[in-house]
Amino acid sequence: MAFFRHRFFSLAAAALAVSLIACSDNSNGEKGFSVSDPFPQGFLWGTATAGFQVDMGCPSGPCTDTYSDWTQWATDAGIIEEELTNGDPLEDGPGHWELYETDFDLAVEKLKNNGYRMSIEWSRLFTTSTEGVDDHETLRAMADPEGLAHYHAVFEALQERGITPLVTLIHYSMPTWIHDGVACHKDPEGCENRGWLDGDRLIPEMAKYAGFAAREFGDKVDLWATLNEPYAVVLAGYAFPGPERTNPPGISILNGGDIEYLTRVILNMVEAHARMYDAIHAGDTVDADGDGVDTQVGLVPNLAPTEPKDPERELDVAAAADAHQLYNRFMLDPLILGELDEKRDDLGGRMDFVGINYYTTLTVSGMAPLFSELPLFTFLPDTTDLFAARPDGLYKVAMFVKETYDLPVYITENGTVNKPDEDRGAAFVVNHLTWLRKAIADGADVRGYFYWSLIDNYEWNHGFGMKFGAFAYDVETKERSLKKLGEVYGSIAGANRLLPAVVAEFADETAYR
Ligand code: FCB
Fold it and tell me: What is the rounded CA–CA span in Å between residue 211 and residue 216?
C-alpha cells in the first residue's frame, strides 16, 4: 500500500499542471489507407452531455436538480466565496430537461447524428435514501414520478428518431442523501453523508441504482457507462481542487485532506464499477436495438498519453512510463485483467467496452528519487492547459486500449471551447477524426465518437463561460443556433467519412495525413 500511496502522490502532483510538446509524426506509412475512407458501418456519430450540465434553465422555470450534491456545491455561499465554484446561476442553462425533443431534432437534422451520450441523474430519480429497500417494485414506488416519467420519455424520443443512447449513470454528481459535499468540505471526518469516503454505504446503493435503471430502461438502452472520469473526481475532489477543476467535497491534501482519502476513493471507485457492472447485466436483459446483444457496460476514464519532457533524459522517460501506469492503467488493469495487488476475479472481466474521454496529452519530467532504494519515482507535470489540442493523442489512446486490452472503444468525449463562426473548432474536430480514422485502419475497434458537447452548458466550477457546444443558445429565449463546428461535424457524420474537401479546408499540420 505504501508503494501505491507514493505513486498516487506523484499522480496528484502530475495533475497540477501539464504542458504540451506540439509535434507529431504525420508520415503515412501504409498503402491504400486514406483519412477520407469511410468509418465502419453502423459507426455511432453523436454528442455527449451530462444531465447536471444541460438540464437546468427551462423555458417554463429553473428545472433545478434540488437533491444533487452539485446543486448544493454550485450555490453554496461559502463555496463561492472560497472560489471553488464561480456562482453562475444554474437557471441560465440551456433547459434541455424541457427542450430535449428540440435538441434531438437538431442533432438529427443538423448534426446527422445517430448516437447520443447522456446521463441519468441519480438525484432526479431517488430524492431520498434507498437504503433497506431492494425489490424493484418498491424502488419504483419510491422513485420520483416526474424523474421516472422524464427518462422514459427521453429514451422514447431517442428511439423514435433512430438515435442510439449511451447512458452514463454517474457523471460526477450524486444525491445529497448519500453525499453532502459542503459538510464534508468543512469536516471530512465528521460529516454524515460521506459519498466516496464511505464505500460500505455508497457502493451498495450505487449498484442498486444502476440495477434499477438497467431494469427500468433496459428495453430502450443497451449501452451503459458506470462512472465518468473517476480520476477527475479523485483529483479535483480529494487532492487538488483549484481553478482548473473542483468537485465536491473539494478537499485539498495541502489543507485538511489526507493522502489516505485518495487511495480509499480510488479503490472504492474500482469496486463500485464492478458491482454496478454486475447489477446492470442482471437488470438489463432486453435487447433494445435487435442486434443480439442485451447490454454492454463500460467505464469512462479520461485517458491521456504521457510523454517525457526531454526524451533524452532517462528520468523523464521513466516518469512518463510511470505516469502512464498510474493515470491510464490503474483502474483498467483490475477491471479488465483482474489485477490489483493480487488476482481479483470479482473485479476482472467487468468491462465490455472502454469509453475514452480524450482531451489532451500529458508531459512530465522525472525527479531524482529521494531515496534510491525506495520504488519512489516522482514526476512533475508541466501543465498549463488541460484542454490543449493534441489530435495525435487520440490515436495513441485508442491504440493503447487495442494493444493492452483488445476491447471495443467508444470515444465518449472529445471537444474544445469554440465560438459560433470560427474555423478553429471545426479544425479541432477534423484533426482529431483524421487520427481516429488512422487508429481504425490500424485495427482499433472504435465504434463511435461523441463530440463534447451538443450545446453550450454549465462547465462545472467555471460556470457558463467555457462553451464547448456544437450549438449555442440564447439565455433569454433558449433558442439554439448551429455553430461552424456543428456544421462541419454534421457534414462528416452525414457522409460517415471525412470528405476530401473538408480535410482540405480544415485540417492543419496536427492532422494525420
Ligand atoms: C470532461 C467532463 C465533461 C465536461 C468536459 C469539458 O472532463 O467529463 O463533463 O466538463 O470535460
Answer: 8
Q: Give the residue from 415, 412, 428, 423 showing the smallest Cα distance to 457.
A: 415
Percent of the chain exceeding pLDDT 90 equals 86
Q: How many CB atoms lie within 10 A of CB 278?
A: 16
Cell of 350: 467487468
Helix, strand, coil: what percent of the chain each, to 5?
A: 40, 15, 45
Helices 314-324/2-14 angle, 10° precision = 100
Q: Which of 171, 229, 360 to mutate to test the pocket of ligand 1 (most atoms within 8 A of CB)?
A: 229
- 314: part of which helix (H) or strand (E)? helix 314-324
Examine the pLDDT at 129 and tell me if it is beyond 90: yes
Cis peptide before 249 (omega within 30 of 0): yes
Q: Mean pLDDT over residues 196-205, rounded? A: 98
The pLDDT tens digits for 336-353 are: 999 998 999 999 999 999
> What is the identity of the amino acid at 165?
P
Position of cell 481553478?
A: 243
Q: How far does residue 165's CA lie from ligand 1's centre (Å)?
A: 18
Please choose from 118, 459, 466 the residue to mutate so as to test ligand 1's pocket, defined by most ligand atoms within 8 A of CB. 459
Q: Which of 164-173, 318-327, 360-369 has the lowest mean pLDDT?
A: 360-369
Q: Following CA atoms 15, 268, 170, 182 in sequence, which dihedral angle do they give, to the nearest 10 degrees?
A: -70
What's the distance, Cα to Cα, between the start and end of the chain in Å? 45
User: 3-state class of 217 per DSSP?
Assistant: helix
Summarize the confidence of residues 443-466 as an average pLDDT. Answer: 98
Residues ≥6 apart with Cβ < 8 Å to 401: 303, 354, 356, 407, 409, 444
Amino acid at 374: L
At residue 332, the 3 state secondary structure works out as helix
Q: How many residues does the chain have?
A: 513
Q: Which is the closest atom of ligand 1 to the Cα of 228? A: 8
The CB density around residue 265, as the number of other CB atoms within 10 Å, is 20
pTM beyond 0.90: the answer is yes
Tell me: the pLDDT tens digits for 370-396? 654 454 456 777 766 788 899 999 999
Q: Write the CA distances from 215 to 137, 224, 284, integer angstroms.
A: 11, 12, 5
Q: What is the mean pLDDT of the chain?
A: 92
> Going by CA atoms, what residue is nearest to atom 4 of ligand 1?
459
* Identity of residue 486: G
- CA–chain centroid gap for 61, Å, is 28
**Protein residue with least CA distance to atom 10, ligand 1:** 459
Q: Which of 411, 452, 459, 462 to mutate to test the pocket of ligand 1 (most atoms within 8 A of CB)?
A: 452
Taking the centre of ligand 1 as the mean of its atom positions, its distance from the CA of residue 53, in whole angstroms, is 9
Cα–ligand 1 centroid distance for 171 (angstroms)? 9
